[in-house]
Amino acid sequence: MSMAGNERIKIITGDITALDADAIVNAANSSLQGGGGVDGAIHRAAGPELKAYCKTIGTCPTGEARITPGFKLRARHVIHTVGPVWHGGEKNETALLASCYRESLQLAASAGCRTVAFPAISTGAFRFPADKAARIAWATITDFLRTHPQPETVYLVFFEENARSIFERAVKDEF
Ligand code: AR6
Prior knowledge:
Layout: E1 9-13, E2 23-28, H1 37-46, H2 48-57, E3 65-69, E4 77-82, H3 93-110, E5 115-118, H4 130-147, E6 153-158, H5 161-171
Helix pairs in contact: 3-4, 4-5
This protein binds ligand AR6.
The site of ligand AR6 has 24 residues, from strand 2 and helix 1.
């Protein structure tokens, strides 16, 4: 049986920077000044205006999110969120990761976004175990969509097939 909200979540494989969504989410670090992984790819694709704009915002604490224009991206907005670094699970990592998804969805809804795309926050350089992160992402997004009409559709974007199948296996009991 499918839970309410789930039919509004679409799982895809690809490069998030190429996506035609109202907003794409960036797995940033607190400086908001770019980095490696998806953060580097988003900054490269958006152009140098993004970094300059982020400088005016300042830093962003772990678990929070900030919204900017998308500049050269197809996406109108970028929502930058700072995931937790995995330290073994005793440093509030679960609550902080859930907060990243919730705050990003809230910003997307406030900006009138009908579609928003997420990468797998914290599962790369920040080493959050992918299966645990999957269950947190799924539960948090599903909860949010149950009580909010917007965004209408949430895309979960995996760079590699393997990451996508780990995600699908981790949440398969929830479908
Ligand atoms: N599209 C979609 N997913 C991607 C892309 C892309 N273009 N590129 C990478 N991924 P990471 P984090 C996936 O390391 O763990 C940066 O230096 C990647 O395969 O980008 O939150 C920041 O500045 C992985 O599954 O983010 C921070 O310092 C997922 O995106 C730090 O890394 C997240 O991996 C953030 O680390």
